[in-house]
Amino acid sequence: MTLHTVSNPAPEAETEVKDDVDNLRKDFDSLKDNVSSLMSHVGQFASAKAGEVPEQTREFAGEAKDKIEGYGNAVSDRIREKPLAAVGIAAGVGVLFAMLTRR
User: Fold this and answer.
1) What is the DSSP string of 51-70?
2) Distance of alpha carbon 78 from alpha carbon 65, whole angstroms
3) Looking at 1-103, which runs of residues are DSSP E strands?
4) CA 30, 33, 34, 35 torsion: positive or negative?
5) Which H or E element spans position 37?
6) Which residues of 40-52 are buried (b: 16+ CB within 10 A; e: fewer)?
7) Which residues of the chain have pLDDT under 70?
């Protein structure tokens, strides 16, 4: 029968736990830095995209203006081509408008 001596494992376990806690703290600090950096990048991205909106709005307004001018020119051309029809349509719209507003 052999006797086994048991050494005190507490100091080794305590050291391992301290090392694990230190590693967790370092990982947590790294995670905080990464999240902070991510949020900063998200803010910059959102600011950049918000700056693009007015430019897109100006482009849309310019395109709409061009289309309206094109339609206006087309109507003017049609009136020049058929002036009597244009006068008749205008008179009909005027009569219809007068009938609707009289009620």
Assistant:
1) HHHHHHHHHHHHHHHHHHHH
2) 20
3) none
4) positive
5) helix 10-81
6) eeeeeeeeeeeee
7) 1-9, 103
